[in-house]
Known about the structure:
Elements: H1 2-54, H2 60-66, H3 71-85, H4 93-110, H5 116-129, H6 135-144, H7 150-161, H8 166-171, H9 179-188, H10 191-203, H11 209-222, H12 228-233, H13 240-253, H14 271-283, H15 290-296, H16 302-312, H17 318-328, H18 332-349
Helix pairs in contact: 1-2, 1-3, 3-4, 4-5, 5-7, 6-7, 7-9, 9-11, 10-11, 11-13, 13-14, 14-16, 15-16, 16-18, 17-18
Amino acid sequence: MNIYFFWLxxxxxxxxxxxxxxxxxxRKLLLNKRERxxxxxYELLTESFSSYMLDPTDDRFLEEIRTTSNQTVVxxxxxxxxxxxxxxxxxxxxxxxxSEKYLTKIYKKRLNRREWAIRMNTLYFIEDFHMxxxxxxxxxxxxxxxxxxxxxxxLIRTLTSxxxxxxxxxxxQYSDAPVRLYIDVFKRLEMDIQLKELDAAxxxxxxxxxxxxAAISYIGMIGLIEFLPRIEEELQSDDEELRIQALKSIQxxxxxxxxxxxxxxFHSSSWQERMFAARIAGKLQLSRYQEVLSExxxxxxxxxxxxxxxxxxxxxxxxxxxxxLSENHPDRYARDMATQWEASLxxxxx
Length: 350
């Protein structure tokens, strides 16, 4: 009896495994078949889709997509590819019209799905396709969010891309909001609103230090030279992090109204301030600071030595200066750094 029961269990397990393999194989076959069908439909619709995007009066695509069995996924792929390869396509009226007409209903359902990945991908598509009709639903979801997780962060990015500047005030409610996320918001704002929000961030009336850091960083990143006087004001700030961010922004802007503003930073107790001062002096070729750069090449911090030597290479007589320092600087590490950069200059000339 025991032997019979033992063999029965083995047979059942073997049959169960065979059945599982058959189910998995069948599922894979069906998925592969569906994927082939989707690819075929995508290829068939590519020509009429391209024609429609160039000339909306050519409505062949509208007729074809209406009767496509895998309408949602095929349209998503067509629009996503168009957005990826066509500059400025997120503002295309055809992209907005097609997505609003065929994807709005299903995206509303997807945003309430339990699967996190589906909700996230839907948010990405809404942003890429610029689906403004979904703004109210997204704002409702954002107001219900209680923590700044990845989904909430993408909600903020997506809403901002739909020209909803209220996301900055919502973001300010999270004490753990990173500078990077504020920068992502600034990037997505339309220019007139962006300039207004940057101005407000620099005034810092709400005492949001992270927001101000992000504004200073973003101004340098995209070269908003009209904000230079405001950035230079931050060089006098009592906050070391703000001063460093202002120096970094000036380095990116590649301009300073008065080189004298840099002078205190070459002798700062902060090695980051000394480093950025050296970089700016080199980038702007401020020859008045060649002597202090020659001193800083012997700084106790490697990054300051490196940046000072690199700055000297950007002067027309940089090779002569480095050659002199490599032989005569009293600090051994400074001589090594000068020798390294002198060799680099010689190598680039060959």
